[in-house]
Fold this protein.
Amino acid sequence: MAVAVRGGRGSGLGGFSLRSFFSYRIFVSAIFSLIFLATLSVLFSTNPSTPQDDSALPTTGNAYVHRTFLALKSDPLRTRLDLIHKQANDHITLVNAYAAYARKLKLEISRQLRMFDELAQNFSDISVKPTYRASLFESDGPVDEDVLKQFEKEVKDRVKIARLIIGEAKENYDNQLKIQKLKDTIFAVQESLTKAKKNGALASLIAARSVPKSLHCLAMRLMGEKISNPEKYMDEEPEPEFEDPNLYHYAIFSNNVIAVSVVVRSVVKNAVEPWKHVIHVVTDRMNVAAMKVWFKMRPIEGGAHLEIKAVEEYTFLNSSYVPVLRQLENSQKSDFENRAENATEDVQMKSKQFSMLSHLRFYLPEMYPKLHKILLLDDDVVVQKDLTGLWKIDLDGKVNGAVETCFGPFHRYSQYLNFAHPSIKERFNPKACAWAYGMNIFDLDAWKSEKSTDQYHHWQNKNEDETLWKSGMLPPGLVTFYSTTKSLDKSWHVLGLGYNPSISMDEINNAAVIHYSGNMKPWLDIALNQYKNLWTKYVDNDMEFVQMCNFGL
């Protein structure tokens, strides 16, 4: 009853108490929100382990190298914190953008409200003008035509203005117009995003394919060393181990001296019996001398055997035998005969992108005829464990042992080959799982039985006009070793360290080989810092030319 009596007292007092209560709650909520945001700001802006602001460090010279070195030794949790911090900052930016848009809408609505008030007042002012009121509204006599015309003119002028203002304001209240404007905005943003992605991909590709000055410097200094001391770097007689099929043989095809040195060093350091391992390095004529000087100055340890040759030494690799060489020659010859102004673009692009080193993988039995098995390694991998177990795997008569990369609908044959072409559609399954280059164990005896090189030539000849697949080395591998590839356990080969920042460290640590596939190679400035130290620990920093060429590793 007491409650009823109190509630029944004047409605004005009850309304005032209710409003005061809600105002108090809103005030308290606002205070707590501000405290929470301030706490978040402190948490995200505080760096307990770094006494100085990184942004204050210079970005060139020794300080840059020092900062890069510190970044490589950074705690993985620091990277995680940076990602969380970035996510928070991104959402702050998003909220501020919406707030700015809301303020803009508020200002726009306030402006329209003032305009409507002024417009209504203008209509009212016409009626109360003394001239019009006396002659048109309060007079009982005949209407003055001149005054009426003047009144009509002023009303029409204000009606015209009113229609313009209302037409402009309708955009804010017409749902269809708002939907269309939103669609236009989304389309424009998507266009900008697509353009930004293309520009980013192009910039990343340029950064990945450009040769850093440090690599140029290293090659030049190695060549200078050979020229200065030719007697120290005379070619030696081939070792009998190079053709011994009872040993463990590796093939590396590259013109990147420091990358090859890392692969070789990681293989040998993790081998249980390094003296049983033979590494065959093939490079181009321009870099073969530099490669030999490096390994003469820094011999591999543990008694492992190293053979270095130039691709030009394999004389059977000529245009009469190799389809891609013949196709390139035909394109250049056709361009020379036609002399069309724009005909050189495709040929020049092919010439720049083409490297016979990439195609050597299809000629392994002819390059190493006395071997039974060989392990192909790319120059952007790091070996973390002894790999002799790969030679013990039963490939079930298959040619190629590789790790498959497909998951769900991704990395299937349909993504690499043109299944609109009848030759592809009839021969291959679009849902077949793709596999990866980078670490492949090849049974050369099975290769010869399956005539895999002939298969490669067949498909490469059919793809002269690039209607079966576009550029790249994986598509010809997929068609050549279709149905002759044995899937290996994924722990043998973990990919993506050159583009994927989300690979777990457990997966990386358990891998026998880690692969910096992607554009962010570990010897480039654009490398992912959280993975870079896994590569740099195998760099021979005691090599004097590495220090002189300022690699900053």
